[in-house]
From TrEMBL:
Database matches in SUPFAM superfamilies: N-terminal nucleophile aminohydrolases (Ntn hydrolases)
Name this polypeptide is given: beta-aspartyl-peptidase
Active site (catalytic residues): 197 (nucleophile)
GO MF annotation terms: asparaginase activity; beta-aspartyl-peptidase activity
Gene Ontology BP terms: proteolysis
E.C. no: 3.4.19.5
Length: 326
């Protein structure tokens, strides 16, 4: 074992003209979350506790698209999803369609630990949350003034926005419809690529890996849409070799079972962590755009993306720490 390691992300795909102020805000949030996780690891908290702790912090800050600040559905409401996985015994929990649970990642962990199931959704997940006594809030808590404005733009453009804050070339407003050839998803045009899903992967000093991912999904998405974030093996995976959290074009990540494939090529091809990450990003996404963070049971940390950037940060027990976007 090579000691603990931690990685966090706030989404792949970044506007090259993103204002410096927003870049600095993102870096400060990622740094704060890294330091929170580092402190927990130095206190010998297990990996599964640390990923939940860090993702809760990300969900509670409206900067990225999870928890408070989540993207809005076509009806102007929030439907969130999250998953968590403990690599020690490959235990997992996931939720979708959550509308009043303050921290979806913690509900996902309760599904893992307090239910006979691995995945609960919509009214069933909400009922389970009430039974477990988790903190509940009104749906309005998750809605920000900025997101209301971006949903209006999305509806005017008659499009689904991956990142509702990012302007396109030739447009005058963030999230406005493209006037040039749009990116396509499943053969259908969408306007912007750059989701801001959040995630965390950790290996603790005992070599135990864990991963967690949380998101509000797409702006102006259809009611009931489920992406990759709550799907074990696609958006999240942890086993004895590694822990992985993905972000990006959900449909492409689902088709590639991207998170699990990192572990698979490590196991079956004998690749190291970074080589495995590079392989799946290059070979498994076809025309999709995505990114991921990963840690190995040896204390390694890696990231990869084929978008133009990814909000990310990582640190290891030997003192290495890095926060980046591009």
């Amino acid at each position: 074992m090579g000691g603990w390691a931690i990685a966090v992300h706030g989404g792949a795909g970044v506007d090259p003209n993103l204002p410096l102020q927003r870049q600095e805000e993102a870096k400060r949030l990622l740094t704060r979350c890294l330091n929170l996780g580092i402190s927990a690891l130095r206190s010998n908290l297990p990996a599964i506790d640390v990923v939940e702790l860090v993702v809760r912090e990300l969900e509670s800050d409206p900067l990225f698209n999870s928890g408070r600040g989540s993207a809005l559905t076509e009806k102007g409401t929030v439907e969130m999803e999250a998953s968590i996985m403990d690599g020690t015994k490959r235990r997992c929990g996931a939720v979708s369609g959550v509308t009043t649970v303050k921290n979806p990642v913690s509900l996902a962990r309760l599904v893992m630990e307090k239910s006979p199931h691995s995945y609960l959704a919509f009214s069933g997940a909400e009922d389970f949350a009430r039974q477990q006594g988790v903190e509940m809030v009104e749906n309005d808590y998750f809605i920000t003034e900025e997101n209301v404005g971006m949903l209006k733009l999305a509806k005017e453009a008659n499009s689904i926005l991956f990142d509702y804050r990012i302007p396109l070339p030739g447009t005058c407003a963030a999230g406005a419809a493209a006037t040039n050839t749009p990116i396509r998803m499943n053969g259908l045009p969408i306007s912007v690529y750059a989701p801001e899903t959040v995630g965390c992967t950790v290996v603790d000093s005992q070599g135990r890996c864990a991963a967690a991912t949380s998101t509000g999904g797409l702006m102006n998405k259809k009611i009931g849409r489920i992406g990759d974030s709550p799907l074990i093996g696609s958006g999240t995976y942890a086993g004895k070799l590694c822990g992985v959290s993905c972000t990006g074009e959900g449909e492409a990540i689902i088709r590639a079972t991207l998170a699990r494939d990192v572990a698979a090529v490590m196991e079956y091809k004998g690749l190291g962590l970074q080589a495995a990450v590079d392989f799946v990003i290059k070979e498994r996404l076809d025309d999709g755009k995505a990114g991921l963070i990963a840690v190995s049971s040896k204390g390694e940390v890696a990231c990869g993306f084929n978008a133009n950037g990814m909000f990310r940060g990582c640190a290891t027990e030997d003192g290495f720490m890095e926060v980046g976007i591009w």
